[in-house]
Write a structure and sequence with these properties.
Strand content: over 45%
Shape: elongated
Order of helices and strands: EEEEEEEEEE
Helix content: under 10%
Strand order of the largest sheet: 1-10-4-7
Number of helices: 0
Number of strands: 10
């Protein structure tokens, strides 16, 4: 059997258990553009940024249109985003942030 590569979508969500607490978006690597948005049923706002993200320093996430972090910006992460280096914070307990990205998988053919 030969190995080949294929692309597939991965998705996830992060629950912001406590308001005003900064959380890493997740773990693992997103190999292409990363799309992030606030949960549709959130009662408050959610923001994305660096490890010091807050409601005054972060980018407000939409509940209807995902924010696209382009692949070109990922070059500093060795051609991928490290989800542990993308941070989010919410203004209400229990709100969520959803994300998805394409990732390369090895397959046997």
């Amino acid at each position: 059997m030969a190995k080949s590569s294929a692309w597939g979508l991965k998705s996830g969500s992060k629950t912001l258990t406590t308001a005003s607490t900064v959380y890493a978006l997740g773990t693992g690597l997103a190999m292409s553009e990363l799309y992030v948005m606030a949960g549709a049923s959130n009662s408050g706002d959610a923001y994305i940024g660096g490890s010091d993200v807050s409601s005054s320093t972060g980018i407000l996430l939409s509940k209807t249109v995902p924010l696209k972090l382009p692949h070109v910006l990922a070059a500093g992460f060795g051609e991928s985003y490290d989800l542990a280096g993308v941070f989010v914070v919410g203004s209400s307990n229990g709100d969520t942030v959803k994300f998805f990205y394409a990732n390369k998988f090895s397959t046997e053919v």
